[in-house]
Structures are given as structure tokens and as C-alpha cells.
Amino acid sequence: MLRNISSLLFLALCFSWSMQAQTEVPNLRMMDLGIGLIQPVDITYVRGDSNRLFILEKAGRVRIYDLVNQELLAEPLLDISDRVRDSGERGCLGLVFHPDYLNNGRFFINYTTRTRLGYDNGTTLITEYVNPNPLADTMSANNEGILLAINQPFSNHNGGSLAISPLDGYLYIGTGDGGGGGDPEDTAQNPGSLLGKILRIDIDFVGGSIYGIPPDNPYAASGDTLPEIWAMGIRNPWRMSFDRDNGDFYIGDVGQNAREEIDFQAAGTPGGLDYGWDCREGFINYSGPSSDSCQAGDIYTDPIVDMTHTNSGGFSITGGYVYRGDSFPAIEGWYICADFVLSNWFLIKRDANGDWESFLQEVPEINSVSCFGEDAAGNLYAASLGGRIYEVGADPLSSINQPMTGDPSLLNVFPNPSEGDLNIRLQSAEAGPVNAQLFDLAGRLLSERNWDFGVADFQSAWSLGELPAGTYQLRLTRNGQSWQQSIVIK
Questions:
Q1: Does the N terminus or the C terminus of the chain have fewer Cβ atoms within 10 A?
Q2: pTM of the predicted protein model
Q3: 482 has which bridge partners?
């Protein structure tokens, strides 16, 4: 799958709001998939489908990248460009598949509509489509059901993100504040408006409504606040995601004049958080057209990280994902996001004390990062609005770039060159489990095995399967010592 591997410039400039010297920060790598699209704005997957990656184009097309054959299919899965109002920040902005899509064919799209069906030009629609054959790569656009329609007072700040929690299966919808500078209509703090919010609805509701209100929504029984609201105080949530391992929720919220922010909600905690806009921007107070309604005290939830509007920060955040793939252990558990205006990427993680740390890397190869997304295996991808798609990886922290600690004469791998079937012998000083890792020369972990050998003289066979001809690095680790050897596959 990986093509045109290019090593990144890893800046010595690395910053953190609670930085500790012992933190080992991964060095990101980008792998260009070698395809071109027209303004991609979302990347996602179907649960249980490891063969396809789905990419949303802003004009209203859902494209499919074949991960097996490494090619972009010529025909889109869905084309609704005739009904999408695509200009500026408007367009087809969010896509998510139902967790049981392979059986029910359901998926959801967030777009701004042209004047049609009685809706004004530029109205945000949250719609459901049903593919009668979920394994098919094309479908008709006729099966559209409208779940929500939200009027937009201005053309900007449409939000657009859709996400389904791995814990509760509900659909989360990110809405912007409706646009204009400084939230002039005070929608983000208005409990009677769906704008400037995170909404949460039950898409599997059985009853007379097209969707349900989860009973644990914070305002499900309130007459003063709209029951769909899960959180408020949002300016323009451009990309939000759940950690697929634990359900933690991350929101990239684009700032006004001074700061960008990453908002966070821990899995299992109740809704009702207020992230502060337009009373707060990042960690600081904001004074705007409607700030006289802001309250004192600690009622607002601060972001976990904010970035100042400088060259060492950013000007328009694109929210990302926590990496949970298997290919790049160095970035396991790191939340990775980027700035749309600059080539600045941010790696965010809790330290040993539970404090959030953030580190900056410059990635000059990619401009205008419009979105991130995962495939079914948890591999991470990023898109440039210019049309390129990249897989996000990293140099290994403890692999072929680290020196060996054991006597290399004790390792014998044969035949070498081979056709993929290896015999390995390691004569170490003591017994213990053996870990084997195989890397390509770019540092990507290709395969890993563990043997629980109770004798010091370790011998085993390892069939590597169908690997392309070339040179690889084999690394063995036992009891804190490591050995490595180049192997050639012919």
C-alpha cells in the first residue's frame, strides 16, 4: 500500500505546555498513496471491510480507494453534487458509516444544500442514505432521508463533522456557530439553537420519529434546552473523532483571532460540557459582540491544548485521531492533528502524571491538511485539500535505528538470501522469551513474532509469506538485549 516514502524534516524545535525532557517524541513520516482527488474533506471506513477506504470530496462525491489493488475507483460510490451548495466553507462536509453497514447499508452525510425541497440555499442537512447492496462500489442517490435541517445565518462556520461513538453507537454532529466574526448572534451559548454545538442522536431509534433522543442526553427532559444538544460553546468544529480503543472524544475547534484549540471529553463522562465559545478562546477570555452574556467562574471547560496564531502554532486547526494501527508502534496512543494554513503538525499525549503534552513537527511536503481518517485496521491517513492522500507513519523509536546490545556473532539467520522462509538461531546467555521484528529500510514494521523459549539456545523457523524482493532488517530482542541482521528476499 505504501508508495513514494519521503522522510520528513523533524524540527529540533519541539515544544510543550508541560514538556518533560524524558518524553520520546516520534518522527512522523508521510506515504503518498499516489492518487489525486478534488478537494477531499473526509476519510473513513466501513467496519469489517479491510479492502476499501472511503473519501469524501467537498463537491458531493464519495470516492473509494481500493487498498488491495492500490487504486482509486473511477466511479464514486455516491454522487450528490447536483444538490450540494459548494462554495467557500460550504459543501459536502462529513461522512460516517453505520457500524452495521455491511448488513443494513446505512450511512450519513452532512452537507449544505442548494435551494430545494423547500430548504433555503446554504441550509445544513444531516441525511441518511441506504445502499441496497453494501458490497457494491456504486449506488443511486435516490435513497435519501433527511434527519436534521439547520438554517445558517452566514456562509461560514458550518462545522460538518460526523462521528459514531464506539461505546454507545450514537451519531455525534459538530455544528459551527453560524458564521460572522465573534458569533454575533450568540448561537454557541444559546440553548435554543443547534448552532455552535455537539449534537447527539439515536440513529437506531424504533418509533414514529426519524431519530431518537438518547435518554442520557443532558437536556433530554429539559424544556429550555434543545434535547439533541450534547455539548455547547463550539465555534467551528473542523474534524472530531473518537479513540477507537477507549471511546475518548477529541474535537478540533477553529479559533477566531488568537488561538486554535483541541477539546476533549473522557469516555464515559456525562454530557453538558460548555467549551466556552464565545466567552473563551482557547485558555483566554474572549471579548466579542455578545460577550456581555458571559458568566464568571469555572463553568467553561478548557481545551487540553491551544495553539497561538504564530508560526510556531497555527491559524486554522484540523482535528485528527489517536493512532491505533499496528504498522507504526512509535505513534501508538498519540493524538495527531495539523494546522490547515501552515505545515505544522501536533502530537499530543498525556505524560506519566496525566498532564497533556503537545509537540510540534513541521511537515513541509503537505499543504492545507483538510482532514484525517482511519481504515478498518486503524491505519491513519491525511488529505491535502489539493487532492493528495497520505498514510501517516513514523520512524520506529526502538528498532533498526538503535544500536545492538548483544554480540552479533551469536545470531545466525539462514538461508540468506532466501525466498521468505528463514531459520533463526540465537545463542544468548540465558533463557527467556524472544521477540522478532521485521522492518523495511524506511523503518516500517512489517511483521512481528513472539516465541516463549525456555532455553538459552533459541532455534525456530519463520515464514514471512509473500514479500517483495529486496533488503530488510530483522531484529531480535531477549531479556533487554537486541541483535539485528540484514536479510535479502530474492
A1: C
A2: 0.81
A3: 477
